[in-house]
Amino acid sequence: MADAIGLKLIVAQAMGRLLGTAPVAQFFNEAVAGYEVDEYQAAVGATYTSDVVDLGIGGALSVFLTTANMNGTSPSLTTSVLTSKDNGVLDAFRVAYCADSNVATYAAAILGAFPAVTANGTKAQRFIVDRYVKFIHTITGSSTPAKVTGTGATGGFTYGASGTVDTKTLTLSWDAAGPVTVTFAAPANAAAIATQINTATGVATASIVGGFLQLVGIVGGAAGNVNITGGTALTALGLTVGSTPGINLAIDINVAAQMRAAS
């Protein structure tokens, strides 16, 4: 998702306060003091820079950053505000100073960015900007491989010859590999169940977590999957036939920025 994100501008009057009436259309990428700027994009999975917004005037820009549906492993978003007097012609875009009282140090103020966001919610900060602004959204984290956890409590199994899963089978595939059929051979304990699966598949896909069998793919994101396709051990292990995809690194991002003219 490398394409630049378009900005939807919504105009409201009365010193920047939203009214109950329908918004008036405004030229694309143009706003003035007291007007709102809205930028929204769903399922963002890579760092991107927004389009440039012409605010028409410099001053204090109140920015509200809302994140939702943060998915993946350790997703994190850092949003920086950059500004220029002339859209970068002679005055190169630079970070905008943060003007909030909760920013305690000069070093923090000149970063021109929200602190890293790691949970859904809304954060607000005020920045001192010139006429033109744009936002850089830096996303870190990784996509999560597929994961399937059985419901069969291995603590209640019997083990060894004629044990709960002895001579029973499990057929599975993962990502682009397989299918493989595992025939359990008198596992001595729960860990041996996972070991026999990993030996048959050739990858460390199985483990016992909290007393339950867990199967994890290798490839992160929706391109990866764990497929359970059959076997006589399904009931005991608490598994069902089906395909489970991984989870992509993704964040829904909304930036609402309200301009106040400098006094």
State the low-pLDDT regions, or none: 1-33
Q: Which sheet architecture does the biggest sheet show?
A: 6 strands, antiparallel
CATH architecture label name of the largest domain: Sandwich
Can you give the mean pLDDT?
84
Q: Which CATH top level class of the largest domain fits?
A: Mainly Beta
Q: How does the overall form come out from the CA principal axes?
A: rod-shaped
Please report the number of helical segments: 3
Sequence of secondary-structure elements: EEEEEEEEHEEEEEHEEEHEE
Class computed from helices, strands and strand pairing? mainly beta
* CATH fold group of the largest domain: Jelly Rolls
Radius of gyration equals 27 Å
Helix content: under 10%
Q: Based on DSSP secondary structure assignment, what is the total number of beta strands?
A: 18
- The proportion of strand residues reads 35-45%
Number of domains: 2
First and last CA, distance: 39 Å
With strands numbered from the N-terminus, the spatial order across the biggest sheet is 1-2-18-5-9-8
